[in-house]
Design goal:
1158 residues, three-stranded antiparallel beta sheet, 51 helices
Length: 1158
């Protein structure tokens, strides 16, 4: 053996035996020349993995491990582990089956709402290593939890870029969802089938649901995952379909729709995974407003499970006023206990600040990179590099590569090691002043094809498939399939990827590796002087000659010519890129992001280089796509971009196109509250439009902008009538003329009922939107007769020409005005007609939902049971949220819902409180403090009934504190809030029998009119106003409220005569309270029981039991009190149950048995 030969030779030479541990070469003998071992190739002595490849010699390669981030990795691993701990034996713990305890009063304690998700906000400067940290975390997590095809750890990432104008709305979230869908579709058949089954079983995103269409419209990349589950709706979501009438466009999905559907998607997927999913969003400081809004909703959502969200941003590029900082504050407040009304998890939000690495860590990185092992051997080099880079890892790597390119650091092929022979001062002098300069120098050393590839990709903020790159790099369409073109592309991709300039997501998808590389590419494009149209794909970004020439020649004619050529070349390249992307963007919905890049390039190119008409059409097209993702701001930005560089006289040469653009801008500006901008555009349309029909939309939005800004609805009505008269409607204002209009309508109806209107055909009649707007202003200014005459004129027009999509709204406003006037029968008929008309416009969810809301809340419930309206009103709310309805309608529908719920006497439970909490959260997100106060009143009312309080008729609880709320309101808001607060406090006072509070609340309420368009709200107020007034008068506490009680009694008496289901029990109970007798109470109790109003039945039996006890009929009194006790229990009024238990000891042993006497 070699060792024996060495020892034998040592013996002959009288040398001590060789010690293997002292030398690396076991065949080396000190003092002897040569070796007895077999001669090896030099690669044997070169410890680099690629030493046998001569092409790779001298190329610096960095270690793959992460340096100096163990603490941050530990935080991320703990976040993941906290969720993963609930996975037992490979099966996810079903959080929905977690045991729910009940307290002494029946309130349920729900599980921690945030225990299934974690949010990490990761901040640091550019190049500090945020992405590398997350990638290492994912790598270690997958290794630790031993993922398989059956139980993978899904990791989906998305990145925003500085090219915000070229980015589609929700771009990074779209990337996340696309990669998530791709990974999920590649799982094992069993897991994939389970996921598909969950989606199919979902009531919201299952087959043929609106949500599946919304999701595919917003995130087309979901198609591989959702498959044909959206069959039947996808087309309507992806394009502007017409209604059955053939004219009205379908309502595009709103941001609320996107929020709800995305939440459901993540909830379904998270619930089906065995391991928590990791979602990483990078460079969130460049996120668009739609993304921030959606993320705020998702990160604050309590219904998501099995997800770790990591949101990274550059801390030096955001200030306190940045949208992202508000997002972080709001999410942290919501999840870490800022909202005192929900269960909290104090560790559900983590904030990690990444700083530059220390000199010691940088030294170790450099030592490992150049195979020195011990960091002490690179002290001078590390010090010089650190002085320039300050420990930024990306900057450090670029600096080392630059030193290698300049041969300051070189690989000695004779000694097989990296060496440098200059001092640290000289090393510093060889380094560029910043990282952009280093990157430009690095690009200069690439081939011409690789440089051109980088330039092309620098214009595009998304990852590019090889198929798109082929077209982008080709001279023309025919050369896309040319073998040389494809070979050139693949070589350029390999070269750029090996040089760290590109990052390969998979074998066919590439993206610029860092935003600083993109910046370096685009900064250097003006230096190109070798680009020409004849060699489009071989242009250089920079050349050393051109840079030196520009430096030595500060100007002159030659330089101007060079600049002109470079600019022309650049324009030609940009046109080529935009045309290729426009072509790809038109092929499939998943490619629509290409259109945003294409239109952004064309919007910033010289106008003489583009066709203005084509540019306007493309902006309009892409703006509609933005709107269909719920991004109104992006739509507005795109539409305004066209006007920014256009002359008005030129615009109006293409009349139809200009009119379409201006009308779209007017609608967009109005929606966003940019009234001044909208009025300028309206003025332009009114001056340039050729006909009254073409001016209709401008007139409509002129009226809306002016009225919404001044809040003068009376003047708004007057202005609206003037506009209608311009179109020949001749709106009358005197009573005699109104009677004539009624007669004319009867003739038009041919003596048929209003129900015949349900058979009207649907036509494209935009005038009905103007009618509806003016009618609304008339109603808000309490001009009932004008509402009527506008309705009559509108109906007559519809009979003659057909109904427009806003006609059902006109009808329901008419019905509501008749209901307020007491013309209940006609109002009921028109209310039913309005709902029937909505069936003719099935795609217009917003109008349909708002009409149904008003029909149920303002009209139909006057005679029909409140319980019949509860579920339809909740559905209206969901439809309005999904369709992007007017905020007041979205929240107003829930006011109708809760008022109807309480009026019907339905069970008070934890689900009701959850709905209230969610609605309050919605109010906060929409910035509606007035609505928020109302829902807090409702929740405090429920809480006082369900939980024992010292003063249950007071509103000084955790949900609502009346005194504080009053001080925050303006005069009008204070008046409305006190009306609603006092109404519910009065009900509590009657239930808990607090005569002092009853007296106080009646004093407050006696000044309010006994009318209200909201039927259930008026019902609740007048019901307990009358009951409390008669109660106090009967007990001789006071007689001052007798007239108030009688007025309330008249209201219910009139409705009872008309057959109102809701009014009869209240009317009879009021009679019993006014004149207590056994017969009166028996009739009232029977009526309450027949209407299933258990809350009123409980109160009636309690008051009857008190009367019987006063009459010394104690046995019958006990029976009725016992029955009342169980009815209160069924209602959910556990605090009242406790009060009765304390007052009547016999109830402790009572049973739910009905006495024959009852």
């Amino acid at each position: 053996t070699p060792q024996l030969r060495i020892e034998h030779l040592a013996l002959i030479m009288h040398l001590p035996p060789h010690d293997d541990e002292d030398d690396e070469d076991e065949h080396y003998i000190e003092g002897a020349h040569g070796t007895l071992a077999e001669q090896k190739d030099e690669a044997y002595y070169d410890d680099r993995s690629d030493a046998s490849d001569d092409i790779e010699k001298g190329r610096l390669k960095f270690p793959k491990e992460l340096y100096g981030r163990e603490r941050e990795l530990k935080i991320l691993q703990n976040c993941y582990g906290e969720i993963a701990l609930r996975i037992d034996g490979g099966n996810q713990v079903n959080l929905g089956e977690k045991k729910i305890e009940s307290d002494a009063y029946g309130k349920e304690e729900e599980p921690d709402p945030y225990e299934g998700t974690r949010v990490v906000f990761l901040s640091g400067y550019s190049g500090v290593g945020k992405s590398a940290l997350v990638n290492e975390f994912v790598k270690r997590t997958r290794s630790k939890y031993r993922t398989t095809d059956e139980s993978p750890i899904i990791y989906a990432s998305g990145k925003y870029t500085e090219m915000t104008t070229a980015s589609a709305p929700l771009c990074a979230i779209s990337e996340v969802i696309g990669r998530m869908a791709s990974d999920l579709s590649k799982m094992s058949d069993e897991t994939s089938n389970s996921m598909m089954r969950k989606i199919r079983e979902s009531a919201l995103i299952g087959p043929a649901t609106e949500c599946s269409g919304v999701l595919l419209s917003t995130f087309p990349a979901l198609l591989p995952l959702m498959g044909d589950t959206s069959r039947g709706v996808r087309g309507s979501a992806l394009s502007n379909l017409l209604t059955e009438g053939g004219s009205s466009p379908a309502t595009p999905p709103s941001m609320n729709a996107v929020k709800e559907c995305t939440k459901t998607l993540f909830s379904v997927i998270g619930g089906a995974l065995q391991n928590p999913m990791i979602i990483f969003l990078d460079d969130l400081q460049w996120g668009d407003q739609a993304s921030i809004e959606l993320l705020l909703f998702l990160l604050s959502c309590t219904k998501l499970r099995n997800i770790v969200f990591i949101c990274a941003y550059r801390s030096n590029e955001v200030d306190e006023g940045h949208l992202l900082m508000k997002l972080i504050e709001d999410v942290t407040q919501a999840r870490d206990g800022g909202d005192k009304d929900i269960a909290i998890h104090p560790n559900s939000v983590e904030r990690i600040d990444l700083f530059n690495l220390s000199p010691e860590v940088i030294a170790q990185l450099i030592a490992d990179s150049i195979k020195k092992g011990d960091a002490k051997g690179v002290d001078e080099l590390a010090h010089a590099v650190y002085q320039k880079t300050m420990g930024n890892i990306f900057f450090t790597k670029q600096a080392l590569e630059e030193l290698v390119r300049k041969n300051v650091i070189f690989y000695d092929v004779m000694c097989f090691e990296w060496r440098w022979i200059v001092s640290k001062v000289e090393v510093g002098n060889h380094l560029s002043h910043d990282v952009i300069a280093m990157l430009k120098d690095k690009i200069l050393h690439l081939s011409a094809d690789a440089q051109h590839l980088l330039l092309v990709m620098a214009y595009i903020p998304r990852a590019l498939d090889v198929s798109i790159l082929k077209s982008l790099m080709a001279k023309d369409k025919d050369s896309v399939y040319d073998t040389n073109t494809q070979l050139t592309l693949m070589n350029a991709l390999t070269e750029a990827s090996d040089g760290g300039m590109l990052f390969s997501i998979d074998s066919r998808c590439y993206i610029i590796a860092h935003d600083l590389i993109r910046q370096a590419c685009l900064d250097g494009r003006q230096n190109s002087d070798r680009y020409s149209s004849s060699s489009l794909r071989r242009s250089l970004i920079f050349t050393p000659d051109s840079i030196e020439h520009n430096a030595n020649n500060g100007g002159g004619e030659e330089q101007d010519q060079r600049n002109a050529v470079a600019e022309e070349n650049q324009n030609e390249l940009m046109l080529h890129i935009s045309h290729v992307l426009e072509d790809f963007g038109s092929k499939a919905p998943a490619n629509e992001w290409c259109l945003f890049v294409a239109v952004d390039i064309l919007n910033h190119i010289q106008r003489e280089k583009t066709n203005m008409n084509d540019l306007v059409k493309l902006n309009l097209r892409v703006a509609k796509i933005a709107r269909n993702t719920g991004s109104i701001h992006k739509e507005n930005e795109l539409l305004h971009e066209v006007l920014k560089h256009s002359e008005l006289t030129v615009m109006w040469r293409e009349y139809d196109l200009a009119l379409e653009l201006y009308n779209a801008l007017i609608v967009s500006d109005h929606y966003l509250g940019f009234y001044f901008n909208a009025m300028l555009l309206i003025k332009e349309v009114l001056q340039s439009a050729r006909s009254l029909d073409d001016k209709l939309q401008a007139y409509l939005y002129q009226l809306r902008c002016k009225t919404e800004e001044t809040r003068d609805y009376s003047q708004g009505f007057i202005d609206g009538v003037e506009i209608l008269n311009l179109y020949g409607f001749g709106i009358p204002t005197t009573m005699s003329n109104i009677i004539k209009e009624e007669l004319k309508l009867k003739v038009a109806l041919r003596n048929r009922s209003y129900s015949s209107l349900a058979k009207l055909p649907v036509k494209d009649e935009p005038i009905f939107e103007l009618f509806m707007t003016v009618q609304k202003y008339a109603q808000w200014s309490s001009n009932v007769n004008c509402v009527k005459v506008l309705s009559l004129k509108s109906i007559k027009h519809a009979i003659r020409f057909g109904m427009g999509r806003h006609f059902p709204t006109v009808i329901v406003y008419f019905a509501a005005s008749l209901a307020v006037q007491g013309k209940v029968k006609n109002a009921q008929e028109l209310g039913s007609v309005s709902i029937s008309l909505c069936d003719k416009i099935p795609h217009d969810k917003e109008i349909s939902a708002s009409v149904r809301m008003k029909a149920h809340g303002n009209v139909l419930s006057q005679l029909q049971p409140f319980c019949n309206s509860v579920e339809p009103l909740l559905r209206c709310h969901e439809d309005l949220k999904l369709s992007g309805g007017v905020v007041d309608n979205v929240l107003g529908s829930m006011m109708y819902y809760f008022d109807s719920f309480f009026a019907a006497g339905l069970q008070l439970d934890s689900l009701l409180e959850s709905k209230l909490l969610l609605t309050e959260k919605l109010c906060r997100s929409l910035g509606r403090p007035g609505f928020l106060a109302n829902f807090q009143i409702y929740r405090q009312f429920v809480d006082n009934l369900r939980s024992k309080a010292e003063n249950p008729a007071e509103f000084q609880g955790k949900a609502f504190q009346e005194e504080e709320a009053v001080n925050r309101m303006n005069s009008n808001g204070r008046k409305m809030m006190l009306r609603d607060s006092s109404s519910y406090r009065l009900q509590l006072a009657f239930v808990f029998w607090n005569e002092n509070v009853m007296h106080q609340m009646l004093e407050r309420l006696r000044g309010y009119p006994l009318s209200d368009q909201m039927v259930a709200r008026l019902h609740n107020r007048l019901c307990f106003t009358g009951l409390a007034a008669f109660a106090l008068c009967q007990r001789k506490v006071t007689t001052s409220f007798l007239k108030l009680g009688k007025d309330c009694l008249k209201y219910f008496a009139r409705l009872t005569k008309l057959g109102s289901f809701n009014a009869k029990p209240v009317y009879l109970l009021m009679l019993a309270m006014r004149g207590p007798s056994r017969k009166a109470f028996q009739r009232a109790i029977d009526a309450c029981a027949g209407a299933s109003m258990i809350h009123l039945e409980a109160m009636a039996k309690e008051r009857y039991a008190v009367m019987l006890n006063d009459e010394s009929d104690s046995e019958l009194a006990k029976n009725y009190m016992t029955s009342s006790y169980w009815l209160y229990h069924d209602w959910g009024a556990h605090a009242k149950v406790q009060q009765l238990l304390e007052a009547y000891s016999f109830l402790k042993h009572s049973k739910r048995s009905v006495s024959p006497q009852l």
